[in-house]
Amino acid sequence: MTSEAAPTTSEPPPRATGSDPDKTQSTTPLSQCVQASVAAYLAHMAGHEIEDLYDLVMQEVERPLFELVLQHTQGNLSQAARLLGLTRNTLRKRLKAHGIDR
Question: Which Pfam families does the entry mention (predicted)?
Fold first, then answer.
């Protein structure tokens, strides 16, 4: 029995935007997950006044994003900032706002 190693490449995988109809995606694009979650929230809040929805969504998405990226980079703030497309100082400020100590 022979085992073949998976080919290695230095190119990152394509973004999961759902914009390429020729590619079959095994997961739901992030934008559809956010859309479904916000729709469910709005339906659940029927009859109640909703304020600051933008801030609420950003808080709900940003904290777990930062936590996952920090886990992925093993707590390396420089790598995490680069991966997120932020400056290190901006990342530190956002982490502090969310009460995430690193």
Answer: HTH_8
Question: How far apart are alpha carbons 31 and 41 in whole angstroms?
Answer: 15
What pTM, to 2 d.p., does this model score? 0.66
pLDDT at 18: 47
| Separation of alpha carbons 95 and 62, rounded Å | 9
Q: pLDDT below 50 — which residues of the chain?
A: 2-3, 17-19, 21-22, 24-25
Sequence ranges of the domains in the chain: 52-102
Give CATH for domain 52-102.
1.10.10.60
In angstroms, the Cα distances linking 91 to 68, 84, 99 are 13, 9, 12
| Residue whose C-alpha is closest to residue 68's, from 39, 98, 32 | 98
